[in-house]
Design goal:
Keywords: Plasmid. The protein has 1 helix and 10 strands, in the order H-E-E-E-E-E-E-E-E-E-E. By secondary structure, it is mainly β. It has a single domain, classed as Lipocalin (Beta Barrel). The strands form 2 sheets. The chain has an 8-stranded antiparallel beta barrel. It is globular, with a radius of gyration of 20 Å.
Length: about 160
């Protein structure tokens, strides 16, 4: 009878933070589950990074990894729309890396699925405020099956065929 009067109390265990400072003072981020990947082929390139092909691996908690002939770094992204929409925009902030002089960079890519031909338009700004000339190209969207985000490395077979 006392139990019926007290009601039921539910206690949920608190989920651990995905981003923490470890005991050595380093930022540690847990990468989420893989979702999608874009394979990009640039038609118009940034002169300082003349790499025509790249692959971006996306993870469900907003982490991405990009690899190309000259890039290999992680960052954060926010998706406006859905990967399944005819057009959507993704905003990226790269984590400090050698790729960007140990600093960050901001990119915005808009993807348009044209059926037989899918294109993207890219705008970017460096941490100094320099606006990089607009870039563009074609892309393929596939499922990301890479569960270990540290694994992907660039190789020519990753380019759009």
């Amino acid at each position: 009878m006392l139990m019926a009067m007290m009601g039921t109390v539910s206690v949920q265990a608190e989920e651990p933070d995905l981003t923490v400072i470890n005991k050595d003072g380093a930022l540690q981020v847990q990468v989420g589950e893989p979702t999608f990947k874009h394979t990009l082929h640039y038609r118009k390139l940034y002169e300082e990074k003349p790499f025509p092909d790249a692959v971006i691996y996306y993870y469900q908690n907003g982490i991405y990894k990009i690899i190309s002939q000259g890039e290999d770094h992680f960052g954060l992204y926010v998706l406006q729309g859905k990967f399944s929409d005819q057009s959507y925009t993704i905003r990226y902030i790269s984590m400090p890396s050698r790729d960007w002089g140990k600093k960050t960079a901001y990119h915005q890519l808009t993807f348009v699925d044209g059926g037989d031909r899918s294109i993207f338009i890219q705008n970017a700004i460096t941490d100094t405020g320099e606006q990089i000339s607009q870039q563009n190209g074609v892309y393929q969207l596939e499922n990301n099956t890479e569960t270990n985000a540290a694994n992907p490395e660039w190789s020519a077979d990753k380019a759009i065929k």
